Amino acid sequence: MEPSARAHLRELLFRISVVLKGLDALLELVGGIALWVVSPGFMIRLVHLLAQDEIAEDPHDLVANLLRHSVSKLSFSSEHFMAIYLIAHGVVKGLVVVALLRSKLWAYPVAIAVFGGFIAYQVYRFTLAGGFGLIALSVFDLVVIWLIWLEYRAMKFRRSTDLWDFSPPPHE
């Protein structure tokens, strides 16, 4: 693959991964607001209503039983903690994504630090509760960090070479 095609592929993968992180941030914001607004009692009733057909069909249904068990542990304080966590997580991630998509040079190391912090927390949560989802999310975050690093290096190189280009800008 020639260098220009490789650079184009790198940038395309970078943009796709950042947009996916942006969509994730939006979902976290929506989920956090929903958790803040909806009472634990309503959540319990809703999950039981949605899972009742699955439980009737198969009393050992893994997903339905897991959902019912998880929601039964909800309390007002735990729900609000989760809501605040999701909203804060979504806002921070959203701001980083916007800065990356606007090619702000400072955002690249900040994004690496923020996403690295998310990975550290996800690994910590995995050691407490397990869960394939946390590992999958951490692997995705590692790929995104790698793409951010590659794009950051390329952008710094482009900007350093642009400093020495004294030719007039092209006419449009």
Straight-line N-to-C gap: 31 Å
Q: Which structural category fits the helices and strands?
A: mainly alpha
- The assembly state of the depicted protein chains is single chain
Residue share in helix: over 70%
Find the count of extended strands (DSSP E, 2+ residues).
0
The biggest beta sheet reads:
none
Count of helices? 6
When the domains are counted, the total is 1
Task: Determine Rg (CA atoms, Å).
Answer: 22 Å
Mean pLDDT metric: 84
User: What string gives the helices and strands in order?
Assistant: HHHHHH
Report strand %: under 5%
User: What general outline do the C-alpha atoms trace?
Assistant: elongated
| Unreliable stretches | none
Description:
By secondary structure, the protein is an all-alpha fold. The chain has one domain. It contains six helices and no strands. Helix 4 runs antiparallel to helix 5. It is elongated and about 65 Å long. The mean pLDDT is 84.
List keywords for this structure.
mainly alpha, single chain
What's a concise summary of this model?
The protein has helices at 3-37, 40-57, 62-72, 76-101, 107-129, 132-163. With 172 residues, it is mainly α.
